[in-house]
Amino acid sequence: MYKIRQIKYSANSVSIQVYKIENRKRVIVRHIGTARNEQEQAGLLALANDLIEKISKQLFLFGDEQAGNVLYINQTLFIGVYYSFLYDLISKLIIIIGFDKVKNNLLLDLVIVRMMEPASKLRSLELLEQYFGVHHARKTYYKIAPNCIELKKTVEEKVPLCRRL
After folding, report:
1. Crossing angle of the two packed helices 105-116 and 84-97, in degrees rounded to 10
2. Count of domains in the chain?
3. In what order do the strands lie in the sheet with 25-35?
4. Rg for the chain (alpha carbons), in Å?
5. With 0-12 CB in 10 A as exposed, 13-18 as middle and 19+ as buried, what is 136?
6. Claim to verify: residue 125 and residue 90 sit in the same structural domain
């Protein structure tokens, strides 16, 4: 049976731990955190109750708080958004029309990002990382750039839809 332990310190801080008793000894399962006010304490208690519920399938007699509703804004960092759904969708469309037969991932990624936001090729490399989290080195682009003119014929041969246009 798992239990919640609250240890009070000075300056109104409370440490929340989940523990169980084994061989008459208290064994700490997880230290949930230290709260400095009542709101944080309530959130940590909800997290502790959720942990106990997940690891023991133990039902609680009182309270039905969900820890998923607790988010401390001052302890979070927004790192950005990737448009992975759009990237996957356009990638599947590329496969459907047969453009994937061109075995050049950088070229395919440039097509995808330039459909979303037309820009120069070097700016498109930056946008690939910003929008989709896909990184290609500039050096790689400079290697394939001279061959892109020759790729036009290859693409027209391999992609039947391009021949019709």
Report:
1. 120
2. 2
3. 2-8, 14-22, 25-35
4. 27
5. middle
6. yes
Same domain assignment for residues 64 and 98: no
| Spatial separation of the C-alpha atoms in residues 54 and 68, rounded to whole Å | 13
Containing 41, the helix (H) or strand (E) segment is helix 38-56
pLDDT band at 96 (very low <50, low <70, confident <90, very high): confident
Please write the tens of the pLDDT for every residue from 45-60. 989 988 888 888 766 6
Rounded to whole angstroms, the Cα distance separating 165 from 161 reads 7
68, 94: one domain:
no
Domain hosting residue 128, numbered range: 84-164
Angle in degrees, CA 115, 130, 123, rounded to 5: 60
Convert the pLDDT of each residue in 116-162 to its tens digit: 899 998 899 999 999 998 999 999 888 888 877 777 777 777 666 55
Beta bridge pairs of residue 22: 25
